[in-house]
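Worked example (supplementary).
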Amino acid sequence: MNFFLLSIIKAAVIAFVLLTTLAYLQWVERKVIAHIQVRLGPSRVGPHGLLQPLADVIKLITKEDLIPSHVNKFVYLLAPFLAVTMALISISVIPFGPEIKIFGQPTWMQLTDLNIGLLMILAVSSMGVYGIALAGWASNNKYSLLGGLRSSAQMISYELPLSLAIVSPLLLSNALSLRRIVETQAGSIIHWNILRLPAPQIVSFFVFLIAGFAETNRVPFDLPEAENELVAGFHTEYSSMKFAAFFMAEYANMVTISCVTAILFLGGWQPLFPVAWGSNYVPVAILAAAGLVAIYHGLHPARRLDRLTLPAFGLIFLAIAALFLIPAGQSALLPLFWFLAKVGFILFLFIWIRGTLPRFRYDQLMRFAWTVLFPIAIANLLVTGFLVAWRS
Amino acid sequence: MDVILFLIFAIIAVVSGVNVVVQTHPISSALSLIGVMGSLAVLYLLLGAEFIAMAQIIVYAGAVMVLFIFVIMLLNAGAESKRGRSLVAQLLGFPLLIAFLALTSYFVQRLYTNGAVVHFGGFQGGTAQNIGRALFTQYLLPFEVTSILILIGIVGAIVLARKELD
Amino acid sequence: MNGVPLTWYLILSAVLFALGIAGFLFRKSVITIFMSIELMLNAVNLSFVAFSYQLKQVNGHIFSFFVMVVAAAEAAVGLAIILTVFKNRSTLNVDEVNSMKY
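After joint prediction of all chains, the assembly is encoded as:
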């Protein structure tokens, strides 16, 4: 089992899991926003709407793929390709867990570890701006051009507070490699970068999150691409798979920003409290509780179909909880659970804010970046630097 | 493996460079220039300059070229016209360029006999730590001067490009 | 051979520099001339990094870093100047911007 074969297996697993996650992330978003707005969301296609992403994929693939006649064809076809490629590349350096043994070969749960991993994520997100700017220009349509220019100007402006908010926890962790950053946050919650003495990074966490919202063009910063502004902005002239490519790129960017937040500020795959205090049983407890709640509600269901599906989900949760009790897989599954829990929490934050806040006007957005967020990020960097130098 | 990677990305760099010069529409030239910068970043990685490679992508390909593309879109620059080109310059220029480059390559190969052989991983000193250490100790004065230079650039660009308040 | 001779990197740098000069001299649109200047600066950066490998020092990388910073500042101011010239003369052809009085 040499290195090359192992890397191909890891790449295949990560790609498959990522693409499925992107499809189901859209389901989660629609369900959560629906429940925030006191309605049901997708509930007809499959139990609780779980087959809705499949239906969406089939619809997008079978739609007519038109190329309008007056577009610049090469750039029009290049733009979604650039957007989705850059969005998917940045997952390759995210560490999902510590060193484990696959078929006797020790390897890390990460596709590759660069010793400049964090800079690579910044570089790839800088290249992602091109997908949007070129899409807006190539469509030969004044609304698309305006939407594309606004969106890329927004992404470039917010890259500055994003980078400054990344530098502050780097002063605490002293490494650019994502694996090393997670390893220096070992211990319990007070060793995570967000609460770590000498300089808790709470301000920097919020600056990074806000700049992350703007980088991924999510509410409240999604003026350039909202459906009722500028006739859907830069992706007006795109249909079927190219439109799906832009949406996949947006969700992949969201996943990347959530993963980087979890790694930089929330301790990556480190558990909440040390193993000696029993943190190995937290996933079992949570999943078993979820399974029991599902089975309890399955006894008095609201709809007739739920009499079958809710107990089925309950049993699936209990089976996964039992999986966490097997000592053989624990070294891989437990860090993965903690990492996915943190990433899931931040993705839920993204979706929650989408359902709650109105969007910024474009000039308010740019003014906020340059006059509020950027000085706060610099001030935070100065304070962090001073505290780190004073204590060491 | 090093040779194959170098040849692939050097050929991509040269073809994109020729494209920058030859294409009539500025957007095509800009996209080819981004291709040059990307392949140069890979060549920097082969030379062990990892921080410079990432800085090239973040700063050059990710910010400076976006600025170029914004200006091309704002000015609605169209394809260049072909009038007014001297035929003699075109006929003579291209072979003379090839001859000059061939002569340069021959002399560089012949006179630079103790050149190193570049393996991937042969130079481990290009890390962010080394660059940071050199930048803040030995080259501190140029660093501060360039920060003032960037400030001048910002003020100049804003003053030149704003609307006149009449 | 299992490595690339350094002279190949220097020849590539010379080729890109010559292409930059050719673009600078032959093209008429001022934005393309600017892009040829950026191509020349990139070629010089490659040369610096190649020699830094030869001497096994990090100074070449530092020079290359400063070249990038200066190129970024120059691009910003140069493009602002191009915008102003376009606003006043309505043309991007350098042959037509040949008198001080409009």
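Two points are worth noting when inspecting this output. Chain A has one domain: 3-270+326-391. Chain A has a mean pLDDT of 88.
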